[in-house]
Amino acid sequence: MDFYINTSHFQLEKTLFCGQAFRFTRSREEKNVYLGIAGNRVIKLRQEKDGVSFLNIKDSDLPFWKEYFDTETDYAALTERFSEDDTLKKACGFAYGIRVLKQEPFETLISFIISQNNNIARISGIISRLCEQFGKILPQGGGENLYGFPTAERLAALSAEELAPARAGFRARYIIDAAVKVRDKLIDLDSLYEMNACNAKNELMKIKGVGDKVADCVLLFAYRKTEAVPKDVWIKRVLAEYYPGGFPECVGNDAGIAQQYLFEYIRNNK
DNA sequence: ATCCAGGTTGTCC
DNA sequence: GGACAACATGGA
Questions:
Q1: Which residues 88-127 of A interface with strand B at a CB distance below 7 A?
Q2: pLDDT at A142 exceeding the cut of 70
Q3: Regarding beta strands A33-38 and A51-55, do their DSSP bridges make them parallel or antiparallel, or are they unpaired?
Q4: I need a surface site. Which of A148, A215, A230, A264 has the fewest CB within 10 A?
């Protein structure tokens, strides 16, 4: 069935390509249609005038996708609150329609390990090769094969040489270290949902290649701990230029979401 | 050709 | 504690 979500503040173009997820593409055939993969599920979406349609999904997958796209959060209220601050008001206007996704923890962890000292286009390419080479073929494939994100078990079993075709560069050994620690339960990703941000971050940073910023990305984009603020090169510039004393009070406990609007804004208006 | 990209690590002090 | 080069890869 198709499921139509009638809502403002939900723009697929912004949400899918603002650097939080890396497995979505624009449809070549159909206007305003996007294709993507998450949690071993394939999704087709269409941007509507006043909302978004999930196309041809199984009824039983609806709760998953509603959760994934954060459909219960009131983004109108959120951006109104952020707009007390002048710079944030501009960012909210420019980045209108971005929703912070709730992604699968292991996929998010590996994706943002790959993101370090890298650009978004190449991150997407590496992840795509990783899935093609080590992920399982998904049933909903249709014409060309679609692949799920590789499991920790699969990646943990790889040598650096076997991982080389993905062209992750120096990050290959970090990917393997993360996969091994997850496989061997040195880190229990499921337990982080219930943990406070500080403790969860310390757990993530046990992994080689996971520092302050990557850990915050995982907290924000997988566990939706919206107080986590990933400080990449762009946000550091924003902080230095506009917020030397830290983010304004109006962001409250959602500085991570404010960060995402500022990231989109500054990156496209440099 | 040189610089840069959603950084982290190891090694200096 | 902070500074700083090294790290693979590929596009601008």
A1: 112, 115-120, 122-123
A2: no
A3: unpaired
A4: A148
